[in-house]
């Protein structure tokens, strides 16, 4: 019993911790890389050094997960913490690093960004400064690779920080160097120790330039206010649902002496489980009979049910939603299970996708010994409506 209570407390802590939006007095810059053999990581360390040279600025190096989980990574890279796509929102600036793969960015970094649709549609990264550095072999296609990375950052509305002619005054021109006006690169397959001292100097300059922009922009709230006041950005939820092929189910009917929702002081209170077509989707216990993928699918279905009920509460017009205030996810898990936050992201991402800025919510996740009708998940939701 004591053990279960401890697991429950840890799960609540993890649930809150993952979503915490900390605003410290320091400028926080993320250096996010994919690196297989360590070349990009060496450049990342120089970028981080440059960032930290800027006053009152902290750099954190993380990596994106490998698509191929059996892939052998450089031992130092392997030890780096893995970033989630959602956490990009928490930094004041981001330096992205990738190897050049066929004059493009690595598939792993590309895959990471393919999960950024909720951030994209909610315009979360808009106005956030970003820069790109790379590690190449001979350097063939290195500029095209940086520019292809810029396409993603531009789509997110990020402020791209280029390198111009930074560092070229001190460039050792006796050997080939990876300098470009777009970002630092290293010619890992070229002569001499790589990254060369000139390549590292340029990376440091680039890090400092990003920190300067991040520090200058971090307290500007104008982007947020433009987003919420501009008439052209008024989002029609029905269009968002259609554009994303999201079909809401029929709102599940109550099976006892209660109602599917209550409204008090413009707040709607809803509880749902993973019902689909009258049956529980993927019932059972996560960590025993239900896989994480099945639990995520059940969580997504549960959130669809919540939104379907919410639509009823809004008299059929989801555009009346002002804010998703809080989501609480209960998961039917084994006592040892700790990855509740990862499961709950299926609900949080759907909410962000459907409601954009208004979908940003506080969140808790909790492990339970059992749930009604053996559902793997139950979600309690609070929305504010007009
Ligand atoms: C699939 C693949 C494609 C590559 N394509 C290029 C390329 O187009 N141009 C280039 O200069 N190097 C290319 N390389 C070499 C890598 O960019 C180089 O080894 C880099 O330093 C690897 O970075 P890492 O040590 O961080 O993994 C390629 C390597 C791989 C595995």
Automatic annotation (TrEMBL):
GO terms for molecular function: NAD(P)H dehydrogenase (quinone) activity. This is NAD(P)H:quinone oxidoreductase. The keyword Signal applies. The gene is wrbA. PROSITE patterns: FLAVODOXIN_LIKE. Gene3D superfamilies: 3.40.50.360, RutC-like (3.30.1330.40). It comes from the Bacteria. Residues 1-20 form the signal peptide. It holds the Pfam family YjgF_endoribonc. The keyword Oxidoreductase applies. Residues 29-211 form the Flavodoxin-like domain. Belongs to the WrbA family. Its EC number is 1.6.5.2. Keywords: Oxidoreductase, Signal. It comes from Flavobacterium psychroterrae. It is an enzyme of class 1 (oxidoreductase).
